[in-house]
């Protein structure tokens, strides 16, 4: 089959085709195409651009309002990191839910009928975007630290260890995956975004309330409270037991619902 | 070639598609007809794997659709031209399809030219497209992989008369080159002009299928007579049923030669006698789709048309 024939053949050559000679669509091609789809709409573009804009604004705010003693690399990283932890999950949510809410899934799942490959490609693309974004944020923060301390006429303080930077990346990737999971489970943009705020604000509050009033939950909380377990990643030093807490909480709040959501997506009707 | 064998799909108690079997042959345009909600779109979604059948199998080019390694190169699909991310440009939507299929860049501009979308239009977002432009974009997406099979759901919707004529030529050419076309529409005239084979579905069941020429030949003759009651009686005496049409017209369920002989033998002057092809499809369609619940009146169905 001469599929790559470039001679202009305006209408199909009209054979039923020797299907067996077609090679399966490689995973790399699905990933790069899904990555492209995250940027090629106006909303997608501005969502990505907002990260850069917010990072610059946050750096400027630290330079403008921070005391000399407070102007450290971690102060910049924290200020820049906060908007990112909100925007990244939304990017992940929309990359999944737009296939349903915009109904483009009708084309996507017709061109790539194995839906689990599409979802996997989206997950890889989202994680790639998350890592690239946070590395960019670290770079902007470093720039801000140099510029800010130069303006203030003080020595820059580099108070983030490489391992802490790595755990911050991990925390953001987990946050993004929560958004991704909610997108797969709920498959509606508005619903998944509401779900994300329930997940990241309401549930942790309930968990704290429960732990303060119920003795039996107090010991369980580290294992059950996903946000609590993630908090240690931002702070830096993570003990073996905290890794265990994180692992258990991730299985409960991330892996399990994601598995259920995937099973539904693969079978669900696309309309 | 598209083959559907005993496909059914139920939603709870509701049977959307009920034991449907048919084939769409290479080199032919197969028109898929039915009233709204008859099961056309569900059947088409089952063919391309977007809906799982409750039972039965559908294959394209000898394989289940989901087993095709790169389906875009085998089957061009247009189920709903409006099902696109409205924030993407037309060119971008074609580019995504091109990338999934692994085609050279030049195909995008070729397809835009084929469906007469100008570079300016292609750079606009689909949100600002008319339905006709979305249909053209959908056709371009379906054809970009140079498939041998086309599956199109209501592709003429929103096209202007020139667009409809263009689409007709495109599909005819595609089939004449050996391609398989499965085309649904409720625009009976469109189907009548373009289709070689017909499949009629109602309430999820196939009520008629076969070559258009066979199905419509049995639809009979249209005549006008000075005294149509005399002609109608003479026809009935020869075992030919007929239906009054207009003030002096009659739709007889036999070919023109037979009707002419009967009228001549009865000495009844005719004002007009012609094959009832124009009204045939509409007549047939309305009869067939109104009758699924009352099989007792099936005597007026075209001979040999009932599946």
TrEMBL record, chain A:
The chain crosses the membrane at residues 45-67, 73-97, 118-144, 164-186, 193-217, 246-266. The keyword Transmembrane applies. Keywords: Membrane, Transmembrane, Transmembrane helix. The keyword Acyltransferase does not apply. This is ABC-2 family transporter protein. The lineage of its organism: Bacteria, Bacillati, Actinomycetota, Actinomycetes, Propionibacteriales.
UniProtKB/TrEMBL annotation, chain B:
This is ABC-2 type transport system ATP-binding protein. InterPro entries: AAA+_ATPase, ABC_transporter-like_ATP-bd, ABC_transporter-like_CS, P-loop_NTPase. Belongs to the ABC transporter superfamily. Keywords: ATP-binding, Nucleotide-binding, Transport. Coiled coil: none annotated. The keyword Signal does not apply. It comes from Nocardioides psychrotolerans. Residues 2-228 form the ABC transporter domain. One of its GO terms (molecular function) is ATP hydrolysis activity.
């Amino acid at each position: 089959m001469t599929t790559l024939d470039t001679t202009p053949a305006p209408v199909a050559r009209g054979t039923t085709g020797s299907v067996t000679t077609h090679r399966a669509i490689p995973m790399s091609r699905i990933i790069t195409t899904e990555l492209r789809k995250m940027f090629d709409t106006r909303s997608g573009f501005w969502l990505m651009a907002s990260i850069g804009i917010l990072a610059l604004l946050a750096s400027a705010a630290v330079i403008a309002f921070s005391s000399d003693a407070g102007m450290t690399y971690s102060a910049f990283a924290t200020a820049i990191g906060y908007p990112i932890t909100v925007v990244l999950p939304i990017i992940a949510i929309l990359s999944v839910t737009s296939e349903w809410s915009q109904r483009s899934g009708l084309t996507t799942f017709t061109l790539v009928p194995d839906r689990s490959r599409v979802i996997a490609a989206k997950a890889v693309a989202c994680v790639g975007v998350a890592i690239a974004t946070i590395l960019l944020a670290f770079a902007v923060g470093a720039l801000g630290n140099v510029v800010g301390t130069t303006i203030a006429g003080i020595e820059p303080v580099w108070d983030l260890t490489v391992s802490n930077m790595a755990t911050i990346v991990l925390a953001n990737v987990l946050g993004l995956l929560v958004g991704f999971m909610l997108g797969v489970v709920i498959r509606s943009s508005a619903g998944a975004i509401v779900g994300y705020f329930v997940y990241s604000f309401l549930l942790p509050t309930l968990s704290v309330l429960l732990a303060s009033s119920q003795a039996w939950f107090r010991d369980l909380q580290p294992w059950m409270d996903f946000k609590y377990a993630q908090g240690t990643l931002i702070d830096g030093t993570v003990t073996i037991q905290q890794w265990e807490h994180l692992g258990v909480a991730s299985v409960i709040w991330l892996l399990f619902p994601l598995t259920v959501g995937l099973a539904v997506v693969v079978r669900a009707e696309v309309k | 070639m598209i083959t559907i064998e005993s496909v059914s799909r139920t939603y709870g108690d509701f049977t959307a598609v009920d034991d449907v079997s048919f084939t769409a042959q290479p080199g032919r345009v197969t028109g898929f007809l039915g009233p709204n909600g008859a099961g056309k779109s569900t059947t088409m979604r089952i063919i391309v794997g977007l809906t799982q059948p409750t039972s039965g199998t559908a294959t394209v080019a000898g394989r289940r659709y989901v087993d095709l390694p790169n389906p875009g190169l085998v089957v061009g699909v247009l189920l709903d031209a409006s099902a696109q991310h409205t924030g993407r440009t037309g060119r971008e939507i074609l580019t995504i399809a091109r990338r999934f299929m692994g085609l050279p860049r030049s195909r995008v501009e070729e397809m835009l030219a084929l469906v007469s979308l100008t570079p300016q239009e292609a750079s606009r977002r689909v949100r600002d497209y008319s339905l006709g432009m979305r249909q053209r974009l959908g056709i371009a997406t379906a054809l970009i992989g140079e498939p041998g099979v086309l599956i199109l759901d209501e592709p003429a919707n929103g096209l202007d008369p020139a667009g409809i004529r263009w689409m007709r030529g495109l599909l005819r050419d595609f089939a004449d080159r050996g391609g398989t076309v499965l085309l649904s529409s409720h625009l009976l005239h469109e189907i009548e002009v373009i289709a070689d084979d017909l499949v009629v579905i109602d309430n999820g069941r196939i009520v008629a299928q076969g070559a258009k020429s066979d199905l419509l030949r049995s639809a009979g003759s249209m005549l006008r007579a000075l005294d149509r009651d005399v002609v109608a009686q003479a026809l009935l005496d020869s075992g030919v049923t007929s239906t009054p049409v207009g003030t002096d017209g009659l739709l007889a369920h036999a070919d023109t030669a037979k009707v002419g002989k009967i009228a001549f033998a009865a000495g009844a002057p005719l004002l007009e006698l012609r094959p009832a092809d124009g009204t045939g499809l509409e007549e047939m369609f309305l009869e067939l789709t109104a009758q699924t619940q009352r099989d007792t009146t099936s005597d007026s169905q075209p001979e040999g048309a009932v599946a």
